[in-house]
Amino acid sequence: MRSMGKFLAGLALVAAVSTSFASCTGMFTDGSRPSAEAPQTESESGNFLKSEDKGITSNVHVVNETPTSSGLVEVLDKARPSVVEIYVKLSNGTSAGSGVIVDLQDTDQNGKNDTAYIVTCHHVIEDALSTSVKSIYGVQFEASLIGSDPRSDVGVIKIRSENEEDLEGLTYSSWIADSDSLKVGTSVVAVGNPLGILGGTATTGIISAINRGVVIEGNKMTLLQTDAAINGGNSGGALFDATTGALVGIVNAGYESYAAEGLNFAIPANVAREVETELMSTYGGEYEFGYVEGNYSFGAEFRLVSRAVGWTSYRYYVAVSAIDSYGALAKEGIAAGDYIFSVTVNGKTLDLSTITANTVSDLTSFLSDTEYNVGDEVKINYARSSGSLKEYTAEFKIRQYVYGYDG
Predict the structure, then answer these.
(1) Distance between CA 182 and CA 175 in Å, rounded?
(2) Please, how many CA atoms are within 13 Å of residue 389, restricted to the half-sphere of its CB?
């Protein structure tokens, strides 16, 4: 699900930062953007490449609790080859982001690695018709999807090469043992692909805050905050401990520089590592693609729209501005442009007939309530934006979210 301008530099998401910030429109960017120079690749079907792999057992690498400290030059010498550039072909153009190799495997057991598993952000690979990866050495690979989770904004893709020399020199990143133990002031370095053309760029900073509550595209997230410089194309890239090289987070968002300086965010390693493990272990099973057990997504963004009533009057409605084809609303027939009149979950109703300045944020918060579970009853009253606004009702149970699964 891509909102208009989501990947455009200078256009941004609507985000609400709990307690510390009010809702900010046009300031928040997810860290990726279109790239006119993105390599073009085509999958066989125009959709995700598929593999015969079943239930991958990933080697989850974790840095020792007390790793040996070293200088930043030494840290980057090992860490930078684990960060890759990601280029995505979309139905309406291209975009660029970053990813982090978290495992290298020798699947044919001939002594040389031939497969790499890469963690990135869900929004980097979302809606991809095809995805390519470029290593720091300039070698390009076609990537296939393992699994992706919009709630955590974490996705996993795979690259494989018959020419094993293509992977030589690449390294994998090891997660910090416990990102909850990070302290404000910890020195960090971000590595990514800013502007979609400057792969391998490193920027330094500190951990500015931990456990920062943020709502992005309807998802409540708890993120690390850093002042390391983040630009379009950095999404999905690495945030390393600058002294140990441990992977402490996956970069996923930041404020546009014209709005605020040094306000950037990363998914904590503990969260990203757990999601990576689940996506890998469930891959190739019932739904083919990996998923996080129990996670769901209503899969919609909303905005206020006006509709003429008579010659001089207007009435406002809450409309679906963007929709995820794998989310709950889309699977029940609700489409972008539809007006939402009311939503009921487990007997609790949010009436949208009276519009205020907070209506969209109220609906977003209502649908992102973490108390809901797969199997809960939902009822939505809605109408198409054209014609006489005939009201429809969708009644369904929240289902397991599996990105890429059409069933």
Answers:
(1) 13
(2) 11
pLDDT tens column, 12-42: 222 233 333 322 333 344 544 434 344 443 3
Q: Percentage helix, strand, coil, to 5, in the chain?
A: 15, 40, 50
Nearest Cα neighbor of 102 from 121, 116, 87 is 116
Q: Which CATH number is associated with domain 300-397?
A: 2.30.42.10
Domain with CATH 2.40.10.120 in the chain: 13-282
- Report d(CA 158, CA 163) in Å as an integer: 15
- CA nearest to 123, candidates 145, 154, 99: 154
- Among 175, 201, 241, CA closest to 85: 201
319: closest CA among 360, 287, 261, 264?
Answer: 360
Q: What is the pLDDT of residue 105?
A: 94
Catalytic residues: 123, 153, 235
DSSP labels, 20-35: T---EEEEEE-S-B--
pLDDT exceeds 50 at position 45: no
